[in-house]
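Hey,

The postdoc asked me to send both predictions to you directly instead of through the lab channel. I've kept everything plain text so nothing gets mangled by the mail client. Protein one:
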Amino acid sequence: MNTPRLETERLILRKFTADDTEALYRILGDREVNTFLPWFPLKSIEEARALFETRYAAAYEKERGYLYAVCLKEDDCPIGYVTAGTEGGYDLGYGLRKEFWGRGIVTEAGRAVIDQVRRDGLPFITATHDVNNPRSGAVMRRLGMTYRYSYEEQWQPKDILAVFRMYQLNFDGSCGVFRQYWDNSAVRFVEEGV
């Protein structure tokens, strides 16, 4: 798969490997880290291994994709991830171990991935965050994304009713607002002052 290795001042962004199972478990097994992620926290190394095989290894066999392990240069061990979709809303997603929160790591990694998807010709990217997680919205704004609208969704597999804010970054003037979330939701609105 076309997931080129990326480097920033502090970080290496690369594919997850089978050797990263324990690191993946530390990222996705933490209940607090997973509060605003759609899936449940991993319960074991075995679940992390299965997730690597089904989500990452399988995706890396495709022609194009952006599923990055975020690693500090000093040890090349994953402490988080950044992903970008290759169709639909080209959705940007990220997660980071909580002991690394507040250091600008996700913003730094997100900028590198955004630069790559722009070079590769994606027309825009979107990202969403739960209204109860404003720190994620702050990351989106630091990445140059603009708030477009809010919508309600029954979030799966957690089966939680949530209100999300949708942000978008267009790479050229030909893109309008990505409307799929708006169109699919019976409850949608634009918040003032976001």
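Protein two:
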Amino acid sequence: MSDLHIEDFYRDVAGILLSLYNGFPKPSILFVEDLIGPQEPDAFGVPSPRHQACFSAMLWMAEEGFLRYSDTIRQEAIDQCCLTERAFVMLSTPCSELLDPALPPVIGRQRATLAQQLRDALASESSVRLAEVVQRCFERSARRV
């Protein structure tokens, strides 16, 4: 049986990291809806389980030191959010095993970053590839690059 909630978690992590990386170093508001699309709350106004899971992923990433923020906006967003130095270095430092000497250095360096690997994995729509890259991010972060 597949752990679909973990696949969603990996997709959320990739979206959160790339959203913040693309705007780095400017703090921004990170909305759940921008990451997963609109989700209808239940009849009592409680956010959907998918919405809650994405919001929880944001908070978990902050607790684990990947991002910082100033406040939450209900369960809709986190305000003044930015990557930590640890996450920025993790995403922007080229992985030596991914460097392609056949490419011009500036292109090879950019393509060997985990940020680019996350972009490629999301574009491929392969949950297996995405899981591998997000796990590589976590492993690299634990090693402190």
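Summary for protein two, as requested: The helical segments are 4-23, 32-36, 49-63, 85-92, 105-111, 114-124, 127-143.

Thanks,
C.
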